[in-house]
């Protein structure tokens, strides 16, 4: 179709004109031709053949999942591949899941202490619990109750338990602990009840029962140097007295001096009974 022309000074082409408009401009010595497209500003859609743009690439370019060079198409496909992989790691729904259906979580090697609170209730562990002190010590402030659930508890290693004294301080080293019969003659001094135990050892008396026989009399406990360990105790015929068993190895009734024998002096009566004592390193 032939082009249409508009002279200088004439009105522009009508709005419904669908053909190119040419206008001659008087430049003095010559006329310049200007061509106007109808239909308003802006061009129409432009189609670029697939693969014709080197930077954009083709729709079939392989996905690029690294920082390697490539086309925009390849990079976009790589991003989509990464996103799909990330989504595949999430569980399909919320709530508790088995390990195979959950995201893996690894505690840091320098993780600080994570406290566990039972909310004033009870913590039940169904399975195996491994406790490692990391070369230090495990301290429990309170009580620990371990139930085997009707089965068995197995300890692979060493368990050290420290039991505080029942009453009073101290943790003596008791070399031996035993009882012996008492059979003392009447009116006799320096009768040995327990021989001297040796260097750096003492006799500790934890329990004692004595009863007079044949007549009324007296009894005095002392060491081999006649250092009194009791007063002069009067007993009637077939009467006696008792020191009940001490409930703590650290708290005996009597401590005899180091490496000294335990002795007794009697008055007019014979004395029978039983003595419980220990030999303690000091």
Condensed summary:
With 282 residues, the protein is mainly β. Helix content is 6%, strand content 27%.
Give the arrangement of secondary structure elements.
Elements: E1 4-6, E2 21-26, E3 31-36, H1 72-88, E4 173-184, E5 191-194, E6 201-213, E7 217-223, E8 233-235, E9 240-243, E10 254-255, E11 262-266, E12 270-281
Parallel strand pairs: 1-2
Antiparallel strand pairs: 2-3, 4-12, 5-11, 6-9, 6-10, 6-12, 7-8, 7-11
Question: Can you describe what's shown?
Answer:
There is one protein chain. The protein has 282 residues and is mainly beta. Among the domains are: 4-36, no CATH class; 53-92, no CATH class; 173-281, Jelly Rolls, CATH 2.60.120. It has one helix and twelve strands, in the order E-E-E-H-E-E-E-E-E-E-E-E-E. The chain has one helix at residues 72-88, and strands spanning 4-6, 21-26, 31-36, 173-184, 191-194, 201-213, 217-223, 233-235, 240-243, 254-255, 262-266, 270-281. The strands form three sheets. Strands 4, 6, 9, 10 and 12 form a five-stranded antiparallel sheet that branches. Strand 2 (21-26) and strand 3 (31-36) form a beta hairpin. The longest helix has 17 residues, at 72-88.
CA radius of gyration is: 54 Å
CATH architecture of the domain at 173-281: Sandwich
Oligomer: single chain
User: What's the N-to-C terminus distance?
Assistant: 129 Å
CATH topology-level name of the domain at 173-281: Jelly Rolls
């Amino acid at each position: 179709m032939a082009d249409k022309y508009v002279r200088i000074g004439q009105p522009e082409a009508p709005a419904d004109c669908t053909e190119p408009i040419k206008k001659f401009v008087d430049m003095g010595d010559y006329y310049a031709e200007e061509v106007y497209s109808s239909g308003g500003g802006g061009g129409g859609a432009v189609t670029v053949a697939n693969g014709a743009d080197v930077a954009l690439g083709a729709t079939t370019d392989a996905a690029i999942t690294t920082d390697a060079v490539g086309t925009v198409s390849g990079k976009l496909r790589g991003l989509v591949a990464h996103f799909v992989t990330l989504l595949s790691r999430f569980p399909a729904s919320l709530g508790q899941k088995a390990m195979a259906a959950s995201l893996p979580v690894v505690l840091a090697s320098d993780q600080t202490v994570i406290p566990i609170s039972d909310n004033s209730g009870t913590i039940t562990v169904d399975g195996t619990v491994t406790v490692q002190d990391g070369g230090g010590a495990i301290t429990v402030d309170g009580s620990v109750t371990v139930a085997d659930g009707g089965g068995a508890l197995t300890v692979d290693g060493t368990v050290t338990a420290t039991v505080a004294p029942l009453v009073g301080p101290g943790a003596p080293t008791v070399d031996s602990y035993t009882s012996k019969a008492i059979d003392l003659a009447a009116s006799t001094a320096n009768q040995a009840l327990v021989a001297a135990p040796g260097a750096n050892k003492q006799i500790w008396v934890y329990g004692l029962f004595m009863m007079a026989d044949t007549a009324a009399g007296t009894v005095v406990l002392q060491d081999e140097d006649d250092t009194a360990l009791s007063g002069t105790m009067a007993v009637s015929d077939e009467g006696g007295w008792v020191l009940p068993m001490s409930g703590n190895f650290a708290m005996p009734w009597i401590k005899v001096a180091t490496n000294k024998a335990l002795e007794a002096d009697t008055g007019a009566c014979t004395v029978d009974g039983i003595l419980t004592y220990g030999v303690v390193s000091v």
